[in-house]
Amino acid sequence: MKRILYILLFAATLGACAGKAGTQDSAAATADAESAVEAPVQADADSLFALVTAQTSLGPRTPGSDAHRLCRELIQSRLRRYGADTVTVQQAPVTTFDGTRHTAYNIMGRFNPSAPQRILLLAHYDTRPWADRDPEPSNRSKPIDGANDGASGVAALLEIARVAGREMPDSVGFDLLFVDMEDSGSPADSADDSEDSWALGAQEWVKNMPYTPETKPRFAILLDMVGGKDARFHREYFSDRDARAVVDRIWSIARMSGMADRFPNATGGAIVDDHLHINAAGIPCVDIIESANHATGSFNPTWHTMADNASNIDRRTLRDVTQVVLNTLFSN
């Protein structure tokens, strides 16, 4: 996944440097958050973990593999079971950094498609073809299970579909987007370190979004690596830059939900991820991602290693993040 960009930001003063409009947006977001915090439905930690293991039991979901195909089928089946009004698959030809051609399959489930207010939630379901950050050199050409980097975000979205799909008021609808080909970017030792080699599925999806200017979602939330042990989720830099009011809203809801420790109100890393392309398409998008791990200073220690497996998933982390997103959905 994604690269973490080390930018000299003077991060400690980032919030203080917001303009007048940003301050007004933040105040409004906080007031809205405090008016409604508790969702009428609750995320279940065991259900979330089962959704992770349903994916990892297939094996690494690398593009073109049988496991990748089976994961697509699993996602579509669960969306239909949980009450999605429509399930569609966008196919697009993509080429990875090394010139290999693939077909990206972006899957979308829509709930309350005629609702006047829409929210977009997304996660990637493909997994890294190479454990290029593994401490053991012999592992660096092997594909990873992607329990955290891939399966955790998908599990959160499917759990939201399960508990909220039939409970949303008629005035609010949500779309669940499972993007492909996020994690086939150039390896750590590659001479070609292009940011555009990542998030290939999202790049294609924004070219043919199922929205008009009038029906675009109010905002979007990307869930990525949301199952790490004792993970904490700082405010991602590009999210703060491009969707500050939405970040303020989510982090205020987290605080009002008793999860301020899980969502520190402090700046984390600047991440190359799917949300960059959603923001560029005109939908304010926030990346909820662990980017300031206490041991590494960046991503979870299992990132792009063979240790990214189900044994290193924290059910409580998954539940907390999913519940904050549910509380956000029902606060609209």
Present the secondary structure layout.
Blueprint: E1 4-5, H1 20-35, H2 45-56, H3 66-81, E2 86-95, E3 101-111, E4 117-124, H4 147-164, E5 172-179, H5 200-205, E6 219-224, H6 237-242, H7 244-256, E7 270-271, H8 275-280, E8 285-289, H9 315-329
Parallel strand pairs: 4-5, 4-6, 6-8
Antiparallel strand pairs: 1-7, 2-3, 3-5
Helix pairs in contact: 1-7, 2-4, 2-9, 3-4, 4-9, 7-9
Note the beta-strand portion.
15-25%
Question: Alpha-carbon distance between the termini?
Answer: 31 Å
Mean pLDDT across every amino acid position:
91
Q: Helices and strands: which structural class?
A: alpha/beta
Q: How many beta-strand segments? A: 8
User: Rg to the nearest angstrom?
Assistant: 18 Å
Unreliable residue stretches: 7-25
- Following the backbone from N to C, one meets helices and strands in this order, namely EHHHEEEHEHEHHEHEH
User: Major β-sheet, in short?
Assistant: 6 strands, mixed
Shape from CA axes? Answer: globular
Helicity range: 25-40%
Query: What is the assembly state of the chains in this entry?
Result: single chain
> Given the structure, what is the number of helices?
9
